[in-house]
Amino acid sequence: MITEQPAPLATARAIVTGTPYQTIITSRQHSIIADEPQDFEGGDTGMSPNELLLASLSSCTAITLQMYVNRKMWAVSKIIVELELFTIESGTLIKSSINVTGEITAEQKKRLEHIANVCPVHKMLTGNIAIETLINLL
Question: In CA terms, which of 38, 39, 69, 125 is 20 to 30 Å from 8?
Answer without folding.
Answer: 69
